[in-house]
Amino acid sequence: MALLRLTAAEMIQLSAAWVTPNDEAHQILMSVPPLAALLPQVEAAHQLIISMIPATESPKVKELSAIERTAASVDEAGQSTRLRQSPPPAPRPTGEMSAPHRF
Questions:
Q1: What span, in angstroms and rounded, lies between the C-alpha atoms of 5 and 22?
Q2: CA–CA separation, 60 vs 56, rounded Å?
Q3: CA angle (16, 22, 23) in 5-degree steps
Q4: Confidence (pLDDT) at 3
Q5: Between 8-19 and 59-85, two packed helices, what is the crossing angle to 10 degrees?
Q6: Which of 25, 55, 64, 91 is deepest in the core (most CB within 10 A)?
């Protein structure tokens, strides 16, 4: 992977673990003093990249879009299954018409 060719989304994905306090990668960086000293700059760069991405390209937006697509496909699959399993409509009686309903 050429680091010069990373997209903003890839940069955010790569650095997210480094700036998340409970993440193992963050803990490892904090345990090495020279790297711990650089962590505030990494966090600032991470936030700057996030702020510069258009909302439609944001990793969170992409994740939510993927979830929505999955939900839609599951919903469509369930709908088509229900349609296949539902009985056909009852045939209409032929011949005389029934009396109109009175309400």
A1: 28
A2: 9
A3: 50
A4: 61
A5: 100
A6: 25
